[in-house]
């Protein structure tokens, strides 16, 4: 190796620039080089030959031969030239010539290898100011080059008349470019700009989208622009133009603070689609013809830490109409409601507190009217879990208090408190015991209780309340044995529970509001629950015992797990919600069974059988079978009622036996497969009670190291709000390092 200080001193005496590779570096940076041989000519030409390597700062240059003319300041590298940039990218060439400290230069047969296996090549290159690289007859791809056929075209590539790489702003621009697939031209771009693959966030236009056909938009085109405001906030603006309705513009603003986050998405459009009047499920006339013209929406969420224990936040979701969300494919359409809230919550050791306000906007106008939906202003929740006490028990406290206001319907206030003490222990026989003492108490004030969702005959304002003390003792007695020569194990576990509480029943609750206990779930999952209502506005009272047997077998990768049980009750409440399974002293038996004979099959079923009517009151099942390359799924659910009647505005006149007792009897199925680089899936959902499909669809696609294609099909047979049957076909194309764009039909 030649002495570095000698070379540097020579450069300084000649009053020329020290050699610089890539971006400008300081002349104080040491320069190191390795070469098999070197020579100095009297005309000022320095020559290094044989595996020449030069380092300065974070830059490096490698070539078979490098010459430096001290008179002109021109450096020339020939033979297997490679320039290593600080960002990790490498530029290869057969010949490179630089001047002005390598800020300016030219090269031939250029090949650049960047992040994510991206590659940019050109016949020639001109470098300006060390920042701009102009390539002629450029080619760009992120696909692997076939090792057996290196001359074969990549799966996709951009082939352009010229390309410009801006290393300062991390952009690559193509002029007169063709997108080629397997060497065949597919799409022409007069101009195309993209971020450098090394950039994860940069301002610029994103991949546009185009759809040849949409039911409500017709043919439409979208063009998004991303603005990276700074390191922690950005803005994305998207314009949409369509042939069947007015244009739309949407924007999403995101900001990440040290103490929280803010994410706001808003949009506006001039919707020209008009819908006519139609009749909903309950026979009501619905008119949505006025939901057109200037429309918009705003979805926003923010969370901010006030301290280590307190958090404040908001979730705002508002839209001018459900039809606008449908017409412009706004995310969230298809749900029953848009929910908004403001909240303050705190966390402590064993405790949690939250106060919030809730508002709802109905989207399924065929069933849910906005004027029937509640405003919760406010709601307070507190939960506390204590440490074990001197008796070995643990005390817990829960409360949920709220004020509910409805324009049409019952407005009520509730104060609720639940206190519970649990004492687990076991004995020498292996029995596991749990003693529970609980006190539930509610107090209510309700106005207009004759309206929905109560429809009570009483008029005016009512003050009511309830107090329910409960004592429960539960015993699990698991027995364990091994079999199959020690390779299997069996668990036999009888479970017995006794619950004692005053007999309240629904009769005692006649004039109490009911906001959270509109359904009663008596299944294997709630067999041993103290309260089998979904909330606390209705409570299970009376004397009852629950009996169950749990068994499990596991051996050599096989599993069978089951639970069966019944409830014995002293008091019978005949006016409980229909089909509860508790119309006699001895309840309907409930059960669950899971069978997994191997890794290829898994079956789970649960249900409730009524021995007096010889009918199944509730049942569901799920099957999953197949190998990793081919998988089948199937599901079934049956219930003799549907919960939609809670939202029916004509419930009082039609009665509970109108829409409520319409059966829910559905089957679902699906299949998925993948083979090498191909994948496909399909699904269906059919209502057996209505004798029609609810929805079906599928997906077929291909993906490799640089490209992905998915074709999705969805057909909807049911009505959501004002939307009739609809068919959607979507094409998604993914190009590595460039992005994803889709086509909807």
From TrEMBL:
Residues 40-126 form the Organic solvent tolerance-like N-terminal domain. Pfam families: LptD, LptD_N. Residues 295-663 form the LptD C-terminal domain. It comes from the Bacteria. Its main location: membrane. The keyword Membrane applies. Keywords: Cell outer membrane, Membrane, Signal. It is found in: Cell outer membrane. The keyword Signal applies. Involved in the assembly of lipopolysaccharide (LPS) at the surface of the outer membrane. Component of the lipopolysaccharide transport and assembly complex. HAMAP family: LPS_assembly_LptD (MF_01411). Belongs to the LptD family. This is LPS-assembly protein LptD. It comes from Gluconobacter thailandicus NBRC 3257. The gene is lptD.
